[in-house]
Amino acid sequence: MSYTYADLAQRVREVAPLTHCLTNSVVPEITANVLLAVGASPAMVNHPEESRIFAGIADALLINVGNITDPDVAAMRAAIEGAQKAGTPWVLDPVAVGGLPVRTEFARSLVSGAYPPAAIRGNASEILGLAGHSGRGRGVDSGDSADDALEAARELASRTGAIVAISGPTDIIVSEHTTTHVRGGHELMPQVIGTGCSLGAVVASYLGVHSDDLALRHAAVVAAHAHCAGAGTRAGADPQVKGPGTFAPVWLDCLVHGPESVEACTIAEGAHD
Amino acid sequence: MSYTYADLAQRVREVAPLTHCLTNSVVPEITANVLLAVGASPAMVNHPEESRIFAGIADALLINVGNITDPDVAAMRAAIEGAQKAGTPWVLDPVAVGGLPVRTEFARSLVSGAYPPAAIRGNASEILGLAGHSGRGRGVDSGDSADDALEAARELASRTGAIVAISGPTDIIVSEHTTTHVRGGHELMPQVIGTGCSLGAVVASYLGVHSDDLALRHAAVVAAHAHCAGAGTRAGADPQVKGPGTFAPVWLDCLVHGPESVEACTIAEGAHD
Amino acid sequence: MSYTYADLAQRVREVAPLTHCLTNSVVPEITANVLLAVGASPAMVNHPEESRIFAGIADALLINVGNITDPDVAAMRAAIEGAQKAGTPWVLDPVAVGGLPVRTEFARSLVSGAYPPAAIRGNASEILGLAGHSGRGRGVDSGDSADDALEAARELASRTGAIVAISGPTDIIVSEHTTTHVRGGHELMPQVIGTGCSLGAVVASYLGVHSDDLALRHAAVVAAHAHCAGAGTRAGADPQVKGPGTFAPVWLDCLVHGPESVEACTIAEGAHD
């Protein structure tokens, strides 16, 4: 390709994509701080009337179904309608889908809807659950390995045109003809709430800047994962970090350095076998 | 007893109890981070339909009435019904009860309901307010001393079978025949929002693992308090800590070390006089 | 004047004003931590029935319309009615007003209502939007400079009696006959979500203590701005700070030292030209 992943990270900071986040009640603050750190501009707009308008103004939209309530569903549906009208790309984070009925039905309806997501990001159990397989997740933790979910991810990618990212110790990013592995991160990352949810928002920001064709979108999703994971790798090596509490602020500091973070990961690319 | 408090802390990390938190809008992020730090698995599920199901899957449930709204009340009632059906133990945190009418009526109805909490954790004014006495609280701060609330706590414990914990510079844990004092913590802890609310969630996690009999449940509530307070004692002694902002991440780091935290407290036990 | 700005900061800590915050879903935790750090007592009470009562008990009220939903509007209207009855001063933070219709109509209705705010704090685009001019804001960022909004601020101040603060690299505080410039802060402050929103809460706390006459209220709003900005200046000079993640906790630590923070700013006063 004619650009490096580090170039994509650099471009996000230059453009500062306005990223509309409809996310769960636990993580809005860290999500906003992560977006600011990567150079994006976060906004959360939950009133259905405003959400519809704002999704048309924004460069990208995140729909995270963790802890949804009925008013959230209304705000999300309105936002997706606004996004469709304006062509705004959006990302689905299917938190705990497969395990709980309201969000499972809702997330599946979005995926088969008139304007499916440009990308889907979840752990293995969530990707299995979204695809209609029964995963082993319990709560928000995955009971399945990323490899278990690979076929489901390929099926989702093929059916919807979305890029599907399976988060885990190694992240796997799948689109119709390509599978990429991103190795990086740090064992403290899952001990900080919102590192996964804010990754979904970062994916949206990257797609808000890089959306020309499927190959570029795939690369953008890979770069977003490498950006967050590589910042984790670098933060984990900082001598100030003694545990999850001191890890979180150093990780945010590292996110500011997108190209360096991307380059801290091992990225293995390849077409499908 | 045949186990130490440090053993109980260790066991929480081994089991990683899935802890369903219905808490107020200010503290979900720190609550989740505290639960992760002590080795539990947090989840917040607020849709009434999902909340009912999830309380049956989870190992423990927290109901924190700080800043409740009508939809929260519905989610909480549904969760308690689900918990009752499955026998899931739950903890009530009666934030500002006694001072504000909606939460006071709601919290009192839960305590006299069909499935009362396994534990109640609040400051002195809140325990007095929950028991029907008029405390001197204003907002979320206690205007009363822990000793003032001791009789009210004993009455609540006797009436409901719950273990009642009064938070303060010295925490007092009361069950029908036992009163235990936990001395520890640090003066910066009340300067960090959510240290008290997340203690309620930690109590729930401990009860999700240790629930065989009243003596074990009492010990679990004591250990949860010692875990959080002792981590505060240890964090406050760290030379990196210069104020409440730098205290919070170091406290989270210290929470990872449960047995060491528990042992940093002075625990004075005894049957009622 | 017979008091210094540092005196006003000191007095806030002595009184610990109970500050009722109805704020957006992204920033309640940092808002509460900031209020605790400056010596105030935060509380968030969103149930309309309780909100009305609590606004009468509290020393000050913050209304932040970022991310409002219909239930928030109900809670805010009830709180302002309670504040009016008790004479509690309140602050309006018109987040993204001018750009989104529901909050714009709501915020304008409050400003022309029966009990207008004692102070208004926003960025230049928001002040322009609130005054009915079309600003260049997109999302929550200002597309206008503070000087652009000066006339709109004077018009609002004159029409409502409120003190109007325009946030920016230099903050401008305007009341009917006085304009004050506060220079301080740090370039990392806008990279931490909630530094602006929590400033609105600090302004409310200061007004909860200092409300005798317009000159004192003006000085209180100036001191609140200098307190937050000066803590930013001091935090930014700390060698531990390497980016927005490590800035945030050090900033909270610095906020504990109100008089020193105030004195780290340059404050230029003057009557209107």
Automatic annotation (TrEMBL), chains A, B, C:
Name any one GO molecular function: hydroxyethylthiazole kinase activity
The catalysed reaction is:
5-(2-hydroxyethyl)-4-methylthiazole + ATP = 4-methyl-5-(2-phosphooxyethyl)-thiazole + ADP + H(+)
Source species, domain of life? Bacteria
Q: Give the protein's cofactors.
A: Mg(2+)
- State the organism named in the record: Corynebacterium tapiri
In which residues is substrate bound? M44, G194
Q: Which pathway does the record list? A: Cofactor biosynthesis; thiamine diphosphate biosynthesis; 4-methyl-5-(2-phosphoethyl)-thiazole from 5-(2-hydroxyethyl)-4-methylthiazole: step 1/1
UniProt lists the family membership as follows: Belongs to the Thz kinase family.
GO biological process entries: thiamine biosynthetic process; thiamine diphosphate biosynthetic process
Q: What does this protein do?
A: Catalyzes the phosphorylation of the hydroxyl group of 4-methyl-5-beta-hydroxyethylthiazole (THZ).
Is Manganese one of the keywords UniProt gives this record?
Answer: no
> What SUPFAM superfamilies does UniProt report for this protein, alphabetically?
Ribokinase-like
Note the InterPro entries from the entry. Hyethyz_kinase, Ribokinase-like
- Pfam families given in the database record: HK
Give UniProt keywords alphabetically.
ATP-binding, Kinase, Magnesium, Metal-binding, Nucleotide-binding, Thiamine biosynthesis, Transferase
> This protein is called what?
Hydroxyethylthiazole kinase
The EC code for this enzyme is: 2.7.1.50
- This protein's encoding gene: thiM
Q: Which residues bind ATP?
A: R121, S167
